[in-house]
Structure formats: C-alpha cells, structure tokens
Amino acid sequence: MIVNISEAKTNLSKLVDMVYHGEKVVIAKNNLPLVDLVPHKPEGKRQLGQLKGKINIPKNFDKEDPEINEMFYGKDE
Predict the structure, then answer these.
(1) What is the 8-class DSSP label of residue 23?
(2) Of 4, 29, 35, 71, whose CB has the highest number of CB atoms within 10 Å?
(3) Distance between CA 75 and CA 1 in Å, rounded?
(4) pLDDT at 19
C-alpha cells in the first residue's frame, strides 16, 4: 500500500496497526515513494568487554593535573 504523507499524518494510528499485522506500507510525497513504515525490531543486548585487550588505560588516568586545575580554579595563593 502506498500512502501520501498528508494521508499518513491523518491515518497514522491505522497505518501503524496495519504494519503491526503484516501489511506493507510505503509513505510517498507527490506519489514518489520515500520511506517504508516497518515494525520495530529490538537490537540485541550490548556485549560488555569488547575492547578488552585492545586499548591501554594508564594507571594514572584519573590523577589530577595541576595545570588543568589551575585553568579551572586559578592559582593557589
């Protein structure tokens, strides 16, 4: 089914229900197909640890830098 944008705005709930039940809906502008209305497919869960062994974090990465502190807070007097 091809539906122009103005009709899609008016009947969005109906079109969503149709797609949910297996109907193919294409939204067009001036009868030129632009996008498909498709049901949402959840992505898989994120995998933790994908960069393990690929990056090196220095042991002092969270140590404060006096120069940067001076830029934010000014000189200690």
Answers:
(1) -
(2) 4
(3) 69
(4) 97
One-letter amino acid of 53: G
User: What are the tokens at 15?
Assistant: 């079109």
- Residue 65 tokens read as 């830098």
Residue 67 has phi, psi (to 5 degrees) of: -65, -40
Instruction: State how far the Cα of 18 lies from the Cα of 2, in Å rounded to an integer.
Output: 12
Q: What tens digit of pLDDT does each residue of 32-64 get? A: 999 999 999 888 888 898 888 898 888 988 999
- For the record, the structure tokens of 74 come out as 């000014």
Laid out side by side, the sheet with 32-37 consists of 2-4, 25-29, 32-37
